Amino acid sequence: MARIAGVNIPTNKRVVISLRYIYGIGPQNAVAICEQVGIPAERRVNQLTDEEIVKLREVIDRDYRVEGDLRREVAMNIKRLMDMACYRGLRHRRGLPVRGQRTHTNARTRKGKAVAIAGKKKVTK
């Protein structure tokens, strides 16, 4: 099992797919890293030599911000917005959609499970 940037990447998948398991590396970055190191796209992780794994580690550590550093940076950006009390910061603070989506209906992912409002009981005569 190869360990890159503190993440155990799956061994039986292609390198391009396995690199995506690292937070901060998406499809385009994974392809670029493989080209930079010189690994063919169809190569699987269990077929990599130790030297190639070391090269992958070095390229990712040197050129990309991933995992803990990236998560910390994103969290600090959100905290900065909340401290400034700008519109986006207020939306983050209240747990509402930040990018202009409607909230009258939908937005359940951000707002959480719907809470029923206790209504009056109907009085029948």
TrEMBL record:
<keyword id="KW-0689">Ribosomal protein</keyword>
<keyword id="KW-0694">RNA-binding</keyword>
<keyword id="KW-0699">rRNA-binding</keyword>
<keyword id="KW-0820">tRNA-binding</keyword>
<keyword id="KW-0687">Ribonucleoprotein</keyword>
<dbReference type="GO" id="GO:0005840">
    <property type="term" value="C:ribosome"/>
</dbReference>
<dbReference type="Pfam" id="PF00416">
    <property type="entry name" value="Ribosomal_S13"/>
</dbReference>
<comment type="function">
    <text>Located at the top of the head of the 30S subunit, it contacts several helices of the 16S rRNA. In the 70S ribosome it contacts the 23S rRNA (bridge B1a) and protein L5 of the 50S subunit (bridge B1b), connecting the 2 subunits; these bridges are implicated in subunit movement. Contacts the tRNAs in the A and P-sites.</text>
</comment>
<dbReference type="InterPro" id="IPR001892">
    <property type="entry name" value="Ribosomal_uS13"/>
</dbReference>
<protein>
    <recommendedName>
        <fullName>Small ribosomal subunit protein uS13</fullName>
    </recommendedName>
</protein>
<comment type="similarity">
    <text>Belongs to the universal ribosomal protein uS13 family.</text>
</comment>
<dbReference type="InterPro" id="IPR018269">
    <property type="entry name" value="Ribosomal_uS13_CS"/>
</dbReference>
<comment type="subunit">
    <text>Part of the 30S ribosomal subunit. Forms a loose heterodimer with protein S19. Forms two bridges to the 50S subunit in the 70S ribosome.</text>
</comment>
<dbReference type="InterPro" id="IPR027437">
    <property type="entry name" value="Rbsml_uS13_C"/>
</dbReference>
<dbReference type="InterPro" id="IPR010979">
    <property type="entry name" value="Ribosomal_uS13-like_H2TH"/>
</dbReference>
<dbReference type="InterPro" id="IPR019980">
    <property type="entry name" value="Ribosomal_uS13_bac-type"/>
</dbReference>
